[in-house]
Specification:
By secondary structure, the chain is α+β, with helices and mostly antiparallel strands. It is built from eight helices and eight strands; from the N terminus they run ββββββββαααααααα.
């Protein structure tokens, strides 16, 4: 690197670059710590010990003043050269035509791939869902449902709480077939609404309540009653011929 050394009285300063131009960062090294006075002719970029960095945008020399150690100095001239060539008529150079930028394809390719992946994923989910659709099972009529429930309880004597289950199924059947016998009614509220010929419902509901709410001794009394006979009477509520055949 070419250095330019100035000796001004007892002050020694080294400049680089040796021939600074307008806008260049000019580093100046002194022999001792230095403090520069502010000036509108230049811009102080940094100062650290005996080194300062300055810059100017005026195409002419400027002067530095300040102190180096205990020595005060003034009019230390820093040469600055213009960036223009000699005899430059300062006519602006012709503008270069804009450079054609290739049309970006990558974003559209990425969007297309993402859309394709989404379509494939949706198709896979739809196809998998179609395979899992269970066949539509027609609803079982209320009468048939009750009949099956009664027969299932009668054919499985080992099932626990058979009286309670029979009472629950009977309540569901009555609520579905007779609006005035809703499932929200208690046994004491429902029994007065039954016809005298429907004594089997009275027996079923009372035995079911006994099994649910009575002490063990009374539950044992309910178990002693012939469940099959009561179940056969229950079938008469929906299909007498089925009960007779059974």
């Amino acid at each position: 690197m070419t250095l330019l050394v100035f000796v001004f009285a007892a002050v020694t300063a080294t400049f680089h670059p040796a021939a600074p131009k307008v806008g260049d960062l000019i580093t100046i090294d002194f022999a001792a710590p230095v403090a520069l006075e502010a000036s509108p002719d230049y811009e102080l970029i940094s100062r650290a010990g005996n080194r300062v960095v300055v810059r100017t945008f005026s195409p002419k020399p400027f002067v530095l003043s300040g102190t180096e150690g205990n020595i005060r100095f003034t009019n230390l001239i820093v040469p600055v050269h213009s960036v223009l060539k000699k005899n430059d008529d300062r006519t602006p150079a012709p503008l270069a035509p804009p450079v054609a930028v290739p049309y970006p394809r990558a974003p559209f390719v990425a969007i297309g791939l993402a859309a394709l992946c989404a379509l494939l994923a949706w198709t896979a989910v739809w196809w998998k869902g179609q395979r899992r659709i269970a066949p539509v099972v027609p609803a079982i009529p209320v009468d048939e449902r009750y009949r099956r429930a009664v027969l299932e309880l009668r054919e499985n004597p080992g099932r626990p709480r058979r009286w309670s289950r029979l009472a629950d199924e009977t309540r569901i059947y009555l609520a579905a077939t007779r609006p005035h016998l809703g499932s929200e009614l208690t046994t004491s509220e429902l029994l007065p609404r039954l016809a005298p010929s429907e004594s089997v419902v009275t027996d079923i509901l009372r035995l079911g309540d006994r099994e649910k709410f009575s002490p063990p001794a009374m539950k044992a009394a309910a178990d002693a009653i012939d469940f099959d006979a009561v179940a056969a009477r229950a079938l008469l509520l929906v299909a007498p011929r089925e009960a007779e055949a059974a």
